[in-house]
Amino acid sequence: LRARAMEAVRQAETEQELSETRVAYLGKKGELTQFLRQMGQLAPKERPAVGKLVNSIRRELEEAVSRKEKELKEQALAEQLARESVDVTLPGRTFDQGSIHPLSSIVEQIEDIFIGMGFQVADGPLVEWDYYNFEAMNMPKNHPARDMQDTFYITEDILMRTHTSPVQARTMESRKGKPVKVICPGFAFRRDDDDATHSHQFSQTEGLVIDKNIAMSDLKGTLTEFAHRMYGEDRRVRFRASYFPFVEPGAEMDVSCANCGGDGCHVCKKTGWIEILGAGMVHPRVLEMSGYDPEKYTGFAFGMGIERVAMLKYGVDDIRYYFNNDLRFLRQFVSL
Ligand code: PHE
């Protein structure tokens, strides 16, 4: 019995088999246990000697089982480690990394610059009432300036906003005559044929400041500071008189061309300057229509094309790159 039991322990190949062997010999109904039970049938004289022998076999067997158990555990662990080992010389798995779209990045930069100057960021709907897009911006029905912005109409009174200026009127209405200092970035839409510099959907950001004693010098200071922070301190700016129905006087701001330093090249069409935004002092009628007393309050507003700002910053010469989602283009901005 002893030899048979020891052999069974030796041959057990798994912990399961070992445990079955232990039960077969040492368990409650195991062979060795049965043997001890039958001791009563022996002559009293023989009992001590037989008992001693059986117990020593029992101890021996228990030791063998626990030794084997340890062995099997180590073996299993070694196998597991071998199975799960990592070959550090294999090439890594590559996966595509997403990145911030260059236009989103420019919007963030513009927001950072203006928030740093105390502006808040406001928002408005893309599908807009004719009233906010045109009338409240001092362009009544049949006003010739409406032709400057060829419009997608949805109904007679509802349209896709042609600029972010309607957010001016909405913000003024909601502030109910209190001072305003906001920028309003977002999409705008015009019925243009798409080409290198036109897109029927594009982005602008509007800016609007209204308070007591706001003057043209505030406009110039704010926008000059913006140009320096966006393009660098070495860039020069100039303001030219211009016309927008919702401002008086109106202006456009140019920055000096980075490509030629202002001497004239193909980028700036030999002028040395690149136009980046429209601006002006808020027209008294615009203030009045949205609930401000033009005798007490003045303000300035500006609007810039975000794609244009981005094109100048990154040296992109075709606006369509921003909308085609060509990964070869977008991957160049992964580090933004
Ligand atoms: N809304 C004008 C445009 O789209 C830009 C502008 C905004 C000009 C505010 C002056 C003041 O062309």
Termini separation comes to: 79 Å
Determine Rg (CA atoms, Å): 42 Å
> What small ligands are held by the chains?
phenylalanine
Tell me the strand order in the biggest sheet: 1-4-5-9-8-7-6
Q: What's the quaternary structure here? A: single chain
Largest sheet properties:
7 strands, mixed
Tally the helices: what do you get? Answer: 12
Average pLDDT, all residues: 91
**What's the helical proportion of residues?**
40-55%
Order of helices and strands: HHHHHEEHEHEEHEEEHEHHH
Q: Report the strand count.
A: 9
- The proportion of strand residues reads 15-25%
Derived from helix and strand composition plus strand pairing, the structural class reads alpha+beta
Shape, please? rod-shaped
Low-confidence stretches: none
Keywords: Aminoacyl-tRNA synthetase, ATP-binding, Cytoplasm, Ligase, Magnesium, Metal-binding, Nucleotide-binding, Protein biosynthesis
Protein name: Phenylalanine--tRNA ligase alpha subunit
Subcellular location: Cytoplasm
Organism: Novibacillus thermophilus
